[in-house]
Structures are given as structure tokens and as C-alpha cells.
Design goal:
single chain, 315 residues, alpha+beta, Sulfite Oxidase, Chain A, domain 2, 7-stranded mixed beta sheet, 5-stranded mixed beta sheet, globular, binds ligand MTE
Length: 315
């Protein structure tokens, strides 16, 4: 197991866990404390042990695994490169430009994002296209809340995302071997982006997002393969046409624009029917083997987005 190097963020910049917690949860706790039964119903927490859309009850992956086994090619192509090589990356100050086909284009600082949007903890199953998976407690807010703020025009059909380019701080963007074209880009259809499951994350495990996981702001779309979860976002653009997607551009026969988790459509070089849960059990490569679920188990919430589409063509 690689050594964990904490990101170089001053302790004063790390927001305490309480500030991240859903204000509604805090409010609910306060109301419950006063014994107001009727009011507390409004803020009722999910039943303990019951799986909800946002809290899977499967065992949570260890923080060490989730923060040291990563894909973030800007810091290198090895799984432990992001944690080893991201110490010089500066996630603050940070500004995100949100524009394109919108009424109110704007540039928003990460501090305002933290302040203005209601942060929630969401425990999501995550499935990588490389057939491994994790269960991660994210801190973030619905992408739709940010979209509402800029007011997309009727002509907007897609949302395009772009990662920062900083060769001086991202050693994978420097040097002779460039594994991908930069900036890393990806996109969603607008109705996918508006699905309540799609979030922009600013933290995990109750803490600020470490550099290797995409600080200070990254996309999390739990029914899609992990590569759609674009990290360290600096630009969000509403467009009329389908935006480019880095992995689709680099190998269109292997990675589609939609990238919905689908055990019935194999990657040309490996099966997608099962997955290896990192940190669980033994297994040949370390990690229990389990069956992969359509839409990564979120079919009830998202299958309707694709009704009438042939998902073997639109993979
Ligand atoms: N975003 C950028 N900018 N660069 C990348 O290389 N890798 C993607 C995605 N987002 C990647 C990225 C892939 S392939 C995966 S599986 C997830 O990030 C991994 O996220 P995690 O390391 O937080 O688990």
C-alpha cells in the first residue's frame, strides 16, 4: 500500500466537518432536541440500515484506499501517482467559470460555492470502467442547484466540463510522455446533469477534498463509469451540441459519451459483468468479486433518462 501524503492545505483552510453537514440534518437534530414531534417529521432522517438513494448501506471503502488508489492522469498514470505527485497542487484560491447558453453567466469562487450551496453527505457506490469499485461518502451539492443559478437557455441541451491545465503543479501534464490531450474534458446531457443523483463534490469522509481526488471541486455521477467524474473543474459550459469527452476522443470504440454502468455491454478488452470491490475480501487481485448492476444499482432513479435508446449503441 503506498504511503499517504496529506495534501498541502493549511489547517486553517480545512473546513470543520460540522460546516459541511447538511443544514437540514442539523436543523432536524435541533428540532428533535426540542421534542417537537410534528416538526421533526418534516426533517425525518432515513431509517437506520435502510438503503436510500443517497446512502448505500454497503461497507464504506477505507479512506486510505479511496485517497491512495486513484485515476488522475494530470499527476501520472499509476494508481498511486496522484497521491504521490499532487502535493504542490494549489486548490485555493479557485474560480469556476459557468457560462455558454445561459441567462446569467458568472465566475464563482470556491469560497462562495462552499457558502452558497447546501452541502450534504452522500454515500455512493462508485464503479470504475476498469472493473473495480468503491463505496465513498462524498460531501457536495446537486449540480442542478448551480445550473439553476445561471439559468440555462431553452437551447441548452448539454453541460460541458473542463479541468484546469497547470503543468507546473501537475507533473503528468509536463514532459515527453503525454497520455491524454489536455485539458481533460467531459460532459453530460442537461437532463442527466439535472438528475438529483448528480453532484459536485467538495469533500469526502467529512473532510475537504484531497488533491488526488479532484480538489477543490469535482463531478460525481454514480450511475456512470468513474471517468465521467471529472476533477478539479475550472469551466462549466452549457451547449447545444454533445460536448467532447476525453476518453471517448482517445478511444471511441472503448469509451462512449454516455458511459452508463452496464454489465451487459463489455469493454472490447474485458468484461463489465463483475467488479472487484477495493479493500474487501481476498480475490485474485485483492478485492471481493461481485456482480455489477445496471446503472450501478441506480436504475430506479435514472433508467427513465434513456427510455427508447439502444444502450448497446449509446454505450
Ligand atoms: N479527471 C481528470 N481531470 N483527470 C483524470 O485522469 N480520471 C477519471 C475521473 N476523473 C480523471 C478524472 C477516472 S478514469 C476515474 S475512475 C475517476 O476520476 C477516479 O476518481 P477517484 O480517484 O476520486 O476515485
Amino acid at each position: 500500500m503506498p504511503v499517504f501524503h496529506p495534501p498541502k492545505i493549511a489547517a486553517s483552510e480545512i473546513t470543520p466537518r460540522a460546516l459541511y453537514l447538511d443544514r437540514r440534518t442539523l436543523l432536524g437534530a435541533a428540532v428533535g432536541g426540542l421534542g417537537l414531534a410534528a416538526a421533526s417529521k418534516v426533517f425525518a432522517a432515513p431509517l437506520a440500515g435502510k438503503e436510500t438513494d443517497y446512502k448505500v448501506t454497503e461497507k464504506i471503502t477505507s479512506k486510505e484506499d479511496a485517497t491512495s488508489y486513484n485515476n488522475f492522469y494530470e499527476f501520472g498514470t499509476g494508481k498511486d501517482d496522484p497521491v504521490r505527485n499532487s502535493g504542490d497542487f494549489k486548490p485555493t484560491p479557485w474560480r469556476v467559470e459557468v457560462g455558454g447558453l445561459v441567462n446569467k453567466p458568472q465566475v464563482i469562487g470556491i469560497d462562495d460555492i462552499m457558502k452558497d450551496f447546501v452541502m450534504e453527505e452522500r454515500i455512493y457506490r462508485m464503479r470504475c470502467v476498469e472493473a473495480w469499485s468503491m463505496v465513498i461518502p462524498w460531501i457536495g451539492f446537486p449540480l442542478s442547484a448551480l445550473l439553476d443559478r445561471v439559468e440555462p437557455l431553452g437551447s441548452a441541451k448539454y453541460v460541458a466540463f473542463e479541468t484546469v491545465v497547470r503543468p507546473d503543479e501537475m507533473p503528468g501534464q509536463k514532459g515527453f510522455f503525454q497520455p491524454l490531450p489536455w485539458p481533460y474534458v467531459d460532459g453530460l446531457r442537461l437532463d442527466e446533469a439535472r438528475n438529483p443523483l448528480a453532484i459536485l463534490a467538495t469533500g469526502l469522509y467529512g473532510e475537504t477534498l484531497p488533491n488526488q481526488n479532484g480538489a477543490p471541486l469535482r463531478l460525481v455521477v454514480p450511475w456512470k463509469y468513474g471517468f465521467k467524474g471529472i476533477k478539479s473543474i475550472v469551466k462549466i459550459t452549457l451547449t447545444e451540441n454533445e460536448p467532447p469527452c476525453t476518453w471517448n476522443k482517445s478511444a471511441a470504440n472503448e469509451y462512449g459519451f454516455y458511459a452508463n454502468v452496464n454489465p451487459a455491454v463489455d469493454h472490447p478488452r474485458w468484461s463489465q459483468a463483475t467488479e472487484r470491490r477495493i479493500g474487501e475480501g481476498g480475490g485474485l487481485f485483492g478485492g471481493a468479486r461481485m456482480n455489477t448492476l445496471p446503472f450501478n444499482g441506480y436504475g430506479e432513479q435514472v433508467a427513465g433518462l434513456y427510455s427508447g435508446m439502444d444502450l448497446t449503441v449509446n454505450f
